[in-house]
Design brief:
By secondary structure, this protein is mainly beta. The chain has a single domain, classed as Lipocalin, CATH 2.40.128. The protein has 3 helices and 10 strands; from the N terminus they run ααββββββββββα. Strands 1-2-3-4-5-6-7-8-9-10 form a 10-stranded antiparallel barrel. The longest helix has 15 residues. It is globular and about 40 Å long. The protein starts with a helix and ends with a helix.
Length: about 190
């Protein structure tokens, strides 16, 4: 009986895909990510959702309008999914101290806790995911990395009870000011 429990615990740990990565590991990495600067104004992103087996289930684009008022970064995200579904989500991120952020959105279950260091931002939160007409509470471990040329890469793992369900990969592109004006006219 003890062996079975030990084997089950080992299997559960292996399936959960725990990461030991910490934002502080990226303290010296450049370019430095400043959330309120990067997301101020308009940003466009392209993403995909892969199930636990690596199969792409959905793709999307998202246009983000960001506003920093000195204490709160408000991100209005307008999603267009490849099946034609549209969705809007509004995040409100507040700085909580050196490198610490707290975020809220209507679909989150409690606050999202974020840490920013160097070119990396990690945010962990519980989210009420819309799935087949109902809601399912899942956990997101969301990582963003600022790359050269205004590209921000985002990889989020979605779990339930510690079991990996899906991975969301997003590439944000901060267009130059002239490009943003042209995009807004589309």
């Amino acid at each position: 009986m003890f062996r079975r429990l030990l084997l089950l615990a080992a299997l559960f740990t292996a399936l959960s895909g725990c990461s030991n990565m910490k934002p502080e590991q990226f303290a010296g990495q450049q370019p430095t990510l400043v959330l309120e600067d990067y997301f101020q104004g308009t940003t466009r992103a392209y993403g995909l959702v892969e199930d636990r087996f690596g199969n792409v289930r959905r793709t999307f684009t998202v246009d983000i309008s960001g506003d920093w008022d000195g204490s709160t970064l408000t991100l209005t995200e307008d999603f267009l999914w490849n099946d034609g579904e549209t969705e809007q989500r509004i995040w409100r991120l507040r700085r909580q101290g050196a490198g610490a952020w707290e975020g809220t959105t209507d679909d989150a279950d409690g606050p999202a806790l974020g840490r920013l260091s160097g070119n990396a931002f990690n945010m962990v939160y519980d989210f009420n995911l819309k799935l087949d007409g109902r809601r399912m509470k899942v956990r997101f471990d969301d990582w963003m990395f600022l790359m050269p040329d205004g590209v921000l890469l985002n990889r989020a793992t979605m779990t339930k009870f510690g079991i990996h369900l899906a991975t969301v990969t997003i590439a944000f592109h901060k267009a130059p000011a002239a490009g943003r004006a042209a995009h807004a006219a589309e």
